[in-house]
Every structure is written in C-alpha cells, then in structure tokens.
Amino acid sequence: MLQNRELLLNAKNLLAFSAGGDSTALLFLLLENNIKFDIAIVDYALRSQSKEEVAYAQELAEKYNFQCHLLNAKTIDNNFEANARKIRYNFFQELIEKHNYTNLLTAHHLGDRFEWMLMQFCKGAGCPELTGMKAIEKRESYTLLRPLIHLEKNELLHYLNANNLHYFEDESNHNQKYKRNEFRHNYATPLLEKYLTGIKKSFEYMDKDVNLLIQEAHIERVNEFAYIKPTSNKRSDIFAIDKYIKSKEHIITAQERKILEENEVSIVGRKFVIVQKPSYIFIAPYIKSQNMDKKFKEKMRLLKVEPKLRAYFFLDSEAVAFISSLSQ
C-alpha cells in the first residue's frame, strides 16, 4: 500500500503523527513493512481528547521502540489553520535539523489532494497548482514524502478496521467553518464516492503533464537571500518562485502571481522583493530603507543591484559576496 517504499528503507524517517485515522494507518503500515521511523505530535490543547491522543502516541512509541517528539503549542488567538500549520512545520524543521532526519512523512491521502485541487480550481490556478500535493517533494534540508497520496480515505479505514487498530476521530473535521471541511463534505467526498477510479487516473495524467510542462529550477540560498537560475520557461520560473515563497510560509495569491508574470520587480505580501532578469532571479526580504553609506551605494550601483534589494544587502555581507561572485 505504501508508495515509494524504496525511499523509506535505510533512511532516517520522521512521521508527522496526530493519532487520527490517516496517520495511524501510516504508522502501522510502516511497522508492517519494517521501516524505521520516529514520530512527532503537536498538542494545541483545544480539545480534552488531545491529551488522550498524546498518551496514545507515547504508548505506541514505548511499545514499538521508536521516539515520540511532543510539542505543547502556545495558544493560537487567530487564523488557527494557518498558524497551526506554521507551528507544526517549524517544529518538524527543528527536529529534522537536530536529529538529522532525511525524510518527513505525512499521511495525506487522495481525498486531501482532491480537496486541495478543488479549492485551487475555485480560486483560479494553473495545472501545476491544481496537482498540488505530490508524493515526493524536495525541500531545502529534507524530502517530504506522502506514501498514502494514492489511496482514498475509505481504503485506509478498511485497513484500520480489518486489523482492529485503534485511532481517534477529531470532531473539528466536521466543522464546516473551515473551508477545507466545507469542500470535503460537500464536494470532494461525494465525487470520490462516485468517480474514484476516474479521479485517480486523472491525477496520474496530470502528474505526467506537469512533469513535461515544468522544468526544475536550480535554487541557491544564502541566509534569507535566494538565487534562482532562470529556465527557458517563464511558467517554470514562476512555479519555482511560488514554491520558494511557500517554504517561507506565504501563499502567493492569484493577484500576486499576475504581478509576477507582468513585472520585472515585484513586492509580494509586503515581505519579499523579487527581481526577475534574463540571467537571474533574486528573492530577498523586503526592507523599506537603511542608512547606507556612499561606498556601499557605489558597490550596489556597479553590481547593478535593483534599488529595492539594496536595503537587505546592506545587512547581509554574505549575500553581497555571493552576488559579487555571480558577476565575475
């Protein structure tokens, strides 16, 4: 049942665990396939049941001899979904760096992917954005793997029930004030129930088409500065920018994407300045102004650095050294 099983063997794996049906199914499938892993769980302390879920995670860790990393999250006052995701992935990143994990495993399944596709379609998106979640995604310091992305929720529930495996049901999954739940219950689930085979096949075709459409862009990073070597395909360049900005916890809007397509210099989310030239793409934090000395200003002029980038470079000598090397 596991996709890309060969990438999990002989690797140091960290499983994002919640004690829900999806991650519990993945945990037992990993055990069944003799794949070594540890788990990470976040307690947001919003539900009394969360303490039972943490206790279950710790019980499994002790029983099957793997490590359980726990984060007791601080209270989230607003925009829960986005902030919870940020807390969760920052926690995973810290664990990956501290313990040298090579893979982060999540239990996203076909239903999650289909919900995401429908949400993107309704917002306005191209083929690469519609395909959304991939089975394999290379990140800066690890590989994100989704071994269940080809399976539908009912297939996982059948596995859990057939093997009498305990899991928890999060009641918030039924709360339709969250957009994802609205799409899941009203659109994605009914369509999957009727057209599962066709939807699976469509994703296979779309993945192949996107691989032909999008060229992989080379990205180098120096502190908070990113350099992307442009491809021969503008669509691929925008996709690379989008991917990088997303790794910085900002989702590019349709309007921002249009600005990127039409302008050489763009400010995105009031956080990033993006400069697209035929020979390079630069991305840096957007800093409005700095008291720069004449010597530095002259250096920036000689290097032909976009003025909106200069305030950041004034604070990062390593990034300046890097762009200087590009001009040699």
Short description:
With 328 residues, the protein is an alpha/beta fold. It has helices spanning 5-8, 21-32, 49-64, 80-99, 110-123, 127-131, 153-162, 179-213, 234-247, 254-262, 294-302, 307-315, 317-326, and strands at residues 13-16, 37-43, 68-72, 103-105, 136-138, 143-145, 218-222, 225-229, 265-268, 272-276, 281-285. It folds into two domains: 5-210, Rossmann fold; 218-326, no CATH class.
What tags apply to this protein structure?
single chain; 328 residues; alpha/beta; Rossmann fold; 2 domains; six-stranded mixed β-sheet; 13 helices; 51% helix
Structural summary, described in words:
- The relative contact order is 0.10.
- The N and C termini lie far apart (51 Å).
- The longest helix is centred in the middle third of the chain and has 35 residues, at 179-213.
- It is globular and about 70 Å long.
- Strands 3-2-1-4-6-5 form a six-stranded mixed sheet, sandwiched between helices. Strands 7-8-11-10-9 form a five-stranded antiparallel sheet, with helices on both faces.
- Helix 2 (21-32) packs across helix 7 (153-162) and helix 5 packs across helix 8.
- It has helices at 5-8, 21-32, 49-64, 80-99, 110-123, 127-131, 153-162, 179-213, 234-247, 254-262, 294-302, 307-315, 317-326; strands spanning 13-16, 37-43, 68-72, 103-105, 136-138, 143-145, 218-222, 225-229, 265-268, 272-276, 281-285.
- The chain has 13 helices and eleven strands.
- It has two domains: 5-210, HUPs (Rossmann fold, 3-Layer(aba) Sandwich); 218-326, no CATH class.
- The protein is of the alpha/beta class and 328 residues long.
